[in-house]
Amino acid sequence: MAFHMKTLFGCVSAISLICIVFYGMNNLPSTARCPTVERKITSTRNLKFDRADILSAGERKADQTEYRFVNISSQPENLPSLKSQKPPKHQKKQTCSPTNHVLFLKTHKTGSSTITNILNRYGDKKNLTFVLPRQKQLFTFLWPARFRVSYSAPLYNFGANILCNHARFNKRPMNYIFPKVHSRYITILRDPVSQYESVFNFMHFAKPLGFKDEEDPLGTFLKFPPPFQEIKPLMKTTLALNLVRNPMLFDLGLDFRYFQNVTAVKRYINFLDKEFDLVMILEHFDESLLLLKRLLCWELKDILYFKLNERQDKQKQKVIDKEVREDIKSWNKADFMLYQYFYRTFWKKVKAQGPSFQKELRVFKRRKEALSRACLQKGNFLDEAYTGVYVKGYSLKKNVPMRKRKLCENMMKNEISYVKYFREKINNQVKKIEEPDEYLDDPKNDWEVASDLEHDPILSGVGSADAAPVVPKPDSLQGGETKP
Ligand SMILES: *[C@@H]1O[C@H](CO)[C@@H](O)[C@H](O)[C@H]1NC(C)=O
Ligand SMILES: *[C@@H]1O[C@H](CO)[C@@H](O)[C@H](O)[C@H]1NC(C)=O
Ligand SMILES: *[C@@H]1O[C@H](CO)[C@@H](O)[C@H](O)[C@H]1NC(C)=O
Prior knowledge:
The chain is mostly helical. The protein contains 18 helices and six strands. It has a four-stranded parallel β-sheet with strand order 2-1-3-4. Strands 5-6 form a two-stranded antiparallel sheet.
């Protein structure tokens, strides 16, 4: 019988701005020859407390310090040389070991859902621990608020391995959970013109901004943007509107107050360059993933993907008018500087990889296409993300062999399904290691089974009337206490 896979994509909820692909929650077959993740559980007592009670002093400190702006004027300016000091891990081909600590700062409308899927599958396969949003009904870390330690669900002494759902960058608490010494910080950017168009239209900004009835809402908005003080109250009701200007730098944590300050933006970009080990570029997605694979010392099969959460072609504004393009650039000058900077560092990194990179890239593309052919039916499939909104979907081939099927399915599984699945997974792990509270039902758990220390009561009046009490009463104390 035909196994038709229904996939739901896309969708913005006012709170979470997450895209939905709906599919079942299944585990990957653990075929990997990966080193077992070392972890010890020393206590599960945390279970009984509310999260707020169990934040350690260190966590509280990390949490209370919100990252606002970093004074990096004391840091050296020559960043390229600073970057090149990092050991080129990939070159020691056989000797490096896979990185299992990754913070992916998930930016909006940049192809980030596909990266999240890659990280979800990898972490699931290796039983890594995901940092998940604390609120069960949410799939973001209270975005657009800056990330805090208290926004994440308890980790029960499992060390944090991966964070890959929407969280706004905040250095201190993120460094607390993902110490820089053994973690990799990664993110992805996209050409600000297409990214902004995608944010504006996918998130339906025209309506809350009052440009819905214009023939060209985006173009008109950019010609007559309301002042910040008029947009600010709208942001409170439509959270997505926090992305109304420089959306990528917003996700990366820059305050609005610096959006028109070129000194601050340049400094912040330099700061980000130090914080992030890899900034990927959507327009060069496969190259990005290959850099990622080499940075993390993963295998090619770990980075295979299908594009997730893509808008239908007809919904994409195919040709953006030249004037609108220029206005997008002008409105988002800071994001444009960000993109230009990391576009250059990206290609420097690619060049530094040498000729083996292009060769591996060709192999990667072939394997990716082969997997697509094995998994997916040809043609366009639509799925309803939420009422009336359709996005690109996939349909699984009928005759996919069993051993491949799980992989194919997981590649189409969206981040919401994964968050739900990981919540269940960690709960099950915790249940397994928790002492079952059934000692009263255990027939062997009875003190009568031994008799060495049997109770031998002193029965008064049974031949012991003149025996002295075992413990004499402290007379003096008794008298002193009762009399005032
Ligand atoms: C920034 O750092 C420099 C060098 O350490 C220092 O001289 C300057 O006062 C700092 N600025 C602020 C605003 O803290
Ligand atoms: C992950 O956990 C499952 C279930 O406990 C186990 O069967 C599997 O071997 C584990 N995989 C790895 C790579 O540790
Ligand atoms: C721009 O940012 C820099 C760096 O934080 C700051 O020193 C300066 O006062 C800012 N300029 C304005 C006009 O706010």
